[in-house]
Amino acid sequence: MALEIRQNLKLTQTLIMTQKLQQAIKLLQLSRLELLGEIHQVLETNPVLEESQVEEKSDLQEPEILPFAGGSEETTADGEAINPPEAKSAAEEWDWDSYLQDRLMPTPTFGDFEEREAPSFENLNAQKPTLKSHLMWQLRMAELDEEGEAIGTLIIGNLDRDGYLQATIEEIAAEMNASPERVSEILEIIQGFDPPGVAARDLKECLLLQLKFSGQQDPLLIAIVENHLNNLGNKNYQAIARDLKVPLEKVFQVCEPIFKLNPKPGCEFDAEDADYINPDVHVQKVGNDYIISLNEDGLPKLRVNSFYLEALRSPENLPENVKSYIQKHLDNALWFIRSIHQRQKTLYKVTESIIRFQREFLDQGLAHLKPLTLRQVAEDVQMHESTISRVTTNKYIHTPQGVFDLKYFFNSGINQILGDQIASESVKEKIRQIVQGENPENPLSDQEIADILHRDNVIIARRTVAKYRGMLGVLPSSKRKRPGYRRKDLSETSAS
Description:
Low-confidence stretches: 56-116, 486-496
Radius of gyration: 34 Å
Strand content: 5-15%
CATH class of the domain at 131-270: Mainly Alpha
Number of helices: 25
Structural class: alpha+beta
CATH superfamily of the domain at 131-270: RNA polymerase sigma-54 factor, core-binding domain
CATH architecture of the domain at 131-270: Orthogonal Bundle
CATH topology of the domain at 131-270: Arc Repressor Mutant, subunit A
Shape: extended
Strand order of the largest sheet: 3-2-5-6
Helix content: 40-55%
Distance between the termini: 88 Å
């Protein structure tokens, strides 16, 4: 069969996403902080768009504009024609008197600044000390010679965030051209600094340094830390008692101070600052109804620059390239404002739907959270599931029950004996409460927790309990066992 080249005409339908549609989809899934950055970026690149300095009734509304002669008429999403607003001319809007007055003002002298009241020290931000700066301050107070201070600086520089030394004595000695004995001497000095346990080379040395600092030098306690850390971590007290040939009750009593030690002494200095959440939506209960309000504090109020609107009123006086330039940026500005307006409108509708599904949760708490899927909300608001997924990404809602991620309300369901379903988050809360109320001397196994939930009308397997327990950060029963602890002692420890 001979090969030949032919031309065939084939008609197909394909979905092509325009740049404007991609921008609208992108705005849906942006967080509030990312949306603010996107708005500022568009304000810098689009001269037709500007930020309104006064509160206007039409903020983030679709602006109206008169298209230039000969162009296609702009319409709204509902198909209605857009008409021009009443606007002042550019010459009338510009305040020449204020401009000239600012230019003619004399340059302030040093005396002018002296008369101003400086901010109080209470309003100044205090710089939080780091672990290295805290240790360097103590090193300078130690009054070492030049070589000792240089070795100490190198040792402090090789500490990680937890306060552990990440270099060996031999490596530091080779780097400083000093003897290992001299490095060990400086290291011993630094190990006596605050916080206790800093500059240790492993967990064992860290705990021993803290015991030494607190004056607890019981030989049995030291022997447990030096030789039985693994057994202690696995709660294998019988092995410790058998190896050290002491009663089991004595091991329980001696191990008590170890649980109060800090295995990461440097974390308190280099801990990251907490990121505070600024909710996108606020839900408040007024009477028997829940009122939804979108958080638009700090978002710029956008509008079309009146100078370009005035220019388009007389398109015959504009060159063709200028006219097309203005119309292009004007079209982008209108689409951007409409996209933001649509984003806020969609977020409101989705939040309203979630409140309808999760009304009992808002009224009574986590135990009444219902299973919910994206499809249920999508069918309720008549949108696609992908749109619901995008609009709930990186969004937070403030409710009478606390601040939650919008994705929090979408969770799977666990079957109940009577045929209903309960949300997986509610089951996790039940597991957490069961573990908190257990006897610390005889903690519940995963199967026992599953049996308790089964008596509470929740059908759940043991492996599912283990999965949820791991998600809650709860240790297995073998590692939760605290022999010799009374329930009262446990509650006091949790309160402290």
